[in-house]
Design brief:
The chain is an alpha/beta fold. It has one domain: Rossmann fold (3-Layer(aba) Sandwich). It has 13 helices and eight strands. An eight-stranded mixed β-sheet has the order 1-2-4-3-5-6-7-8, with helices on both faces. Helix 4 links the parallel strand 5 and strand 6.
């Protein structure tokens, strides 16, 4: 759990940030919410149709830093959160995180921000969280966005990869996970030609708590089979996939598209697992073009 002084500083900075200091985005809000015993950091940009984006493991809402303003300028209220234990969010020692808790946290953030319904999207680990939210409260969804994720449960090999991540974070700290993950988050071309991207993602990974890293890894290792959930989805759904994603390759997105009635699949060339950050402009265009059809 992060120290009380660190939390106090984070809250003070968040509440003091003005729209101009935050980059001039219209209707920007940022702060901490007391949610289910945790302190959840959120950013809200824009004043239009609510669009809630959930980050993957072991990242934070800053994964969407290149998406917020573009989507807000297109008429959406873009809300990002840091799951408990990640970014600026904290969690009580007795509840560092679980799939059910992450989903309940996100729904409670919507309640706190007076958002009855939203287009809800999840990247990677955010996908299983989105499915859990839909099982819990389908009436809260105007639409769904699935970003470099999958509905399948983890197989034996993948389970052990995530358990290894938890062990490494425990032994060497959250920052030790960055080299393991960046080779899959960004394409080799991006890592070579845009080292700043790797630096930013490394900083985001390093912000997580050890307890958060362990909890998230266990969520990924033990996630339920959400394939049966796909056929129950009755809201417009956009599936976004990086062509060079080696964590959850395009075949998984194609399977989801086949099982979600009326869903749309967009595959982004030259993008790996963190396509929403690596190829943000192409992702923003795909989201905006699709979201205009959501009623």
């Amino acid at each position: 759990m992060k120290s009380r002084s660190t939390l106090a500083l984070a809250v003070s900075l968040a509440l003091l940030v003005s729209p101009a200091q935050a980059g001039g985005a219209t209707g920007r809000q940022e702060g901490m919410l007391d949610i289910n015993g945790a302190q959840i950091h959120y950013v809200s940009v824009g004043t239009g149709t609510p669009l809630l984006l959930l980050h993957g493991y072991p990242l934070s809402g800053e994964l969407f830093a290149r998406n917020r303003d573009a989507l807000a300028n297109a008429g959406y209220r873009v809300i990002t959160i840091d799951h408990r234990g990640y970014g600026m969010s904290t969690a009580p020692a007795g509840d560092p995180g679980s799939l059910e808790t992450y989903a309940k946290d996100a729904l409670a953030v919507m309640d706190s921000l007076n958002v009855p319904k939203a287009i809800i999207g999840g990247m990677s680990m955010g996908g299983p969280i989105t499915f859990e939210m839909y099982r819990e409260a389908p009436e809260r969804f105007m639409g769904m966005i699935l970003i470099d994720t999958l509905a399948n449960p983890a197989g034996i090999v993948e389970q052990n990869i995530w358990k290894g991540m938890a062990q490494k974070a425990t032994m060497y700290g959250p920052q030790s996970l960055a080299p393991e993950l960046l080779k899959d988050m960004l394409t080799g071309q991006t890592r070579m030609n845009r080292p700043g991207d790797a630096k930013v993602l490394t900083q985001i990974v390093s912000q997580a708590s050890v307890a958060g890293d362990v909890a998230g890894a266990m969520v990924l290792a033990n996630r339920p089979d959400s394939v049966p959930t796909l056929k129950t989805i009755r809201v417009p759904t956009l599936i976004l996939e990086g062509l060079e994603d080696t964590v959850y390759p395009p075949e998984f997105s194609m399977k989801m598209q086949q099982n979600i009635s009326g869903s749309k699949l967009v595959i982004i060339p030259g993008a790996a697992h963190a396509a929403i950050y690596e190829k943000a402009a192409a992702m923003n265009t795909a989201i905006i073009n699709w979201a205009r059809t959501v009623r």
